[in-house]
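Appendix C reproduces, verbatim, an entry submitted by the partner laboratory led by Prof. M.T., so that reviewers can inspect both the input and the predicted structure.
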Amino acid sequence: MMVHHQQPAQYLSGVILGVLLAFFTCSTLAADTTLPIFDTHIHYNRDDWGSFSPQAVIALLQRAGVPRALVSSTPDDGTLMLYQQDNKRIIPVLRPYRTPADRVNWFRSAEVLAYIEKRLARNIYRGIGEFHLTDVSDAATVHISRLIQAAVKHELVLHVHSDAEAIRALFTIGPQVKILWAHAGISAPPSLVGELLGNHPGLWAEVSLRAGDIAPNGRLDAKWRALFLRYPHRFMVGTDTWATFIWRDYVEVVQDHRNWLNQLPKDIAVKIAYDNAARLFTR
C-alpha cells in the first residue's frame, strides 16, 4: 500500500519561490534580444568567400542585429568586398596579412610595410589590424615604429592581438597611439585588464572569444562586472570570425554577448554594445 505524505507548507513555499526566481532570472537573461551590437572584430578571409557571399554576410549581420562592424581580412580584398556591398555598415580596418604566411614575420617585413602604406592611400580605413605580436620583442622593430607613426598621423586605431607586455611596449614607442586590445588579452584576468586601462588612456578592449570567461554558465562574473562598471567607456564587443565555421553560428555568438550585457545596467550595456565603438571608429 502506498502512503502519500503531505508536504509541509514551508517546503511548498520554498519550491514555489524557487520556481518563481528561476522564471524571473531566465526572463531577465533572455530579455532585450534587440540590443544593437557594433561588432568590432570581424574577418572575411579568402577561405570564407566560397561559403558565404558578401550578400550572405550582410544578411547575417542584419539578422544578428549588427548595424555596424569593423572588418579586416586576409587578404584585404575580403574587407573591400563587404565594404562595397554595404559601406554604411562596414568599417574597414587594414590587416597587414596578404596571406596567412605573413602572420609569422610581418613586423620585420619591408614588403608588408610598403603594402600597408600603399593601401592606406585609399583613405577608407579606420584602423590597422587585427595583427599578432606573440612576444614583446616583436614590437621592437623599425617597422613597428613606422606603423605607429602612420597610425598617429592618420588617426588610426591599432587592433592588437598580444599579451600585456607587448601593449606596454607599443605605448612606450608611441604614447599617443590608440589601441584596441583584441580579446582583452585573450587570457588576461580582469585585474590585469583593469591595470592596463588605468595606465593607458589610449587603450580600449574588445571581448571577442571571452563570453565564457565573462559569464561562466551564463552568469556575469562579479569581477568582470566590477571592471565594466569601473571603465564603462573602454570596452567593446566582438565575435572574431577567424574561421568559416564561426559564420555558421554567427547569430548565436552575438547573442551570447547580449546575454551578459543584459545583466549590466542598461546605460552601460548600450555603451559597451555600441556607443563606445561608434564614438571611436566613426567620423
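Residues 126 and 282 are 8 Å apart (CA to CA). Additional entries are available on request from the coordinating office.
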